[in-house]
Amino acid sequence: MGALSTTRPHAHIPMKPVLVLTLLATLLFTSIAQAAPRVETPAPSITQDIASAGRLRLQSQRLAKLWLQAGLGINAGAATGQLARGAAQFDTGLAELAYYAKRPATQNSLQRVSDLWVEYRIALSLPYNVANLNLVNYLAEDLMLATGKLTMKIEAEADTGAGRLLDLSLRQNMLAQRLARLYLLSLAGDRSSGRLVDMDQTRKEFTTALNELSSARENTPASRDALELARMQWIFFDQAISEMNKGGTSRPQNVATTSERIMEALDAVSRQYAQDYSTTRLAATPGSPLRN
Questions:
Q1: Could you tell me which of 286, 274, 44 has the C-alpha nearest to residue 160?
Q2: Cα→Cα distances 173→23, 90, 134, 191, 263, Å
Q3: Whose CA, among 55, 101, 116, 260, lies 20 to 30 Å from 150?
Q4: Chain centre distance of CA 230
Q5: CA distance linking residue 234 with residue 258, whole number of Å
Q6: Which residues, other chains included, contact 90 with Cβ-Cβ below 8 Å and sequence gap of 6+?
Q7: Predicted confidence (pLDDT) per residue in 3-15, tens digit
Q8: DSSP, residue by residue, the chain
């Protein structure tokens, strides 16, 4: 397979296949409008908002990873089902953040995410080939940046260090999925020096942030236990990724499996931070200092 394009690709699809792809997209992906009723409700807790936005950022990488898995025939059946469920979760996450469309500080960022998601969702319904791989890869990068910007703006409204740790733990999950996606891109034929550098930088960033989370003074015994389990999963995942870089036998099934396991472990860390954050807010009384 040739090198992947670095410019924004365009999908050229004949009219008849468009009808088929439209039907496929309809079957695979629930529309944003159907994900949840747009009921006028008070703003949900900031913890839920950070988590919802952080999971959109995670899915920006995970969905591309799953699309690659299916296209490369790596646990293809399971990957196809996970792709459909992940897209539905993205729809739900957007609906949960609808409140932020009314806020001047976040409305443009949320609109950008929504617009990119429309393109990305269609691209994920296209068959695997070089042109569509370039398109999916490009949109995954764009959506990662857009959801990251939205998450940061929402996280800025949190008033304790636990909000920062929640966002950081969610970002760790995105980095793990990104690393798996980069690995599969390399497996698909893109073993350029730039791609290998990107993988190495992502691994280093993950390791640094994991150490930052582990040493955070806001940690509770429960969050430390969850982090230890995540660290154990990272060891297995990193080992599977490293086999390719060291010139050993590549085992993509191991990468596919461990990337999902570390997602579950890191999600448990995020849930614990969310619980800790809520507990901190409930325990705080007027005039008492909150942890930074």
A1: 274
A2: 32, 15, 23, 24, 6
A3: 260
A4: 16
A5: 8
A6: 56, 59, 63, 117, 121
A7: 555 556 654 444 4
A8: --PPPSSPP-----HHHHHHHHHHHHHH---HHHHS---------HHHHHHHHHHHHHHHHHHHHHHHHHHHTSSHHHHHHHHHHHHHHHHHHHHHTGGGGGSTTTHHHHHHHHHHHHHHHHHTTSPPSHHHHHHHHHHHHHHHHHHHHHHHHHHTT--SHHHHHHHHHHHHHHHHHHHHHHHHHHHTT---HHHHHHHHHHHHHHHHHHHHHHH-TT--HHHHHHHHHHHHHHHHHHHHHHHHHTT----HHHHHHHHHHHHHHHHHHHHHHHHHHHHHHHH--TTPPPP-
| In the block, residue with structure tokens 């990873």 | 65
Reported pTM: 0.80
Q: Give the domains, in start order, of the chain with CATH numbers.
A: 17-157 (1.20.1420.10), 159-282 (1.20.1440)
- Residue 117 near residue 90 (C-beta atoms within 8 A): yes
Please answer whether residues 54 and 46 qualify as being in contact, where contact means their C-beta atoms are separated by less than 8 angstroms.
no
pLDDT digits (tens, 9 = 90+) for 204-241: 999 999 999 999 988 889 999 999 999 998 998 888 88
